Amino acid sequence: MPRTIIATDQAPAAIGPYSQAVRAGNTVYFSGQIPLDPSSGALVEGDISTQTRRVFDNLKAVAEAAGGSLAKVVRVGIYVTDLANFAAVNAVMSEYFQQPYPARSTIEVSGLPKAAQVEVDAVMVLD
């Protein structure tokens, strides 16, 4: 099955040896997004809600570059450095997704790149 690399300047460039997303067939696998500003590459400062909005804006840009939208996302993986932020992350996610919601896991981790508070990856299926 051929793979297509998805890249957009509307989301931050990869900070390592990976692609923003890869399409295989009608499935798109997103790399984790942290709250980086796409134009400067700098970490967005602010609380967990501010950082989470930036992450979902970045994912939205990659989804659109792949020919889809967040409505086509079937799975989300969320990584937070403090599970006390669970409710705040949920509140922001509900601004970007409507029912039926994608499957999801939320995992507390000891650290994320660039000292981000949140990272999100996803899987999207295109029609």
TrEMBL record:
InterPro entries: RidA, RutC-like_sf, YjgF/YER057c/UK114
Organism domain of life: Bacteria
Stored Gene3D superfamilies: RutC-like (3.30.1330.40)
Protein family membership: Belongs to the RutC family.
Protein name (Swiss-Prot/TrEMBL): Reactive intermediate/imine deaminase
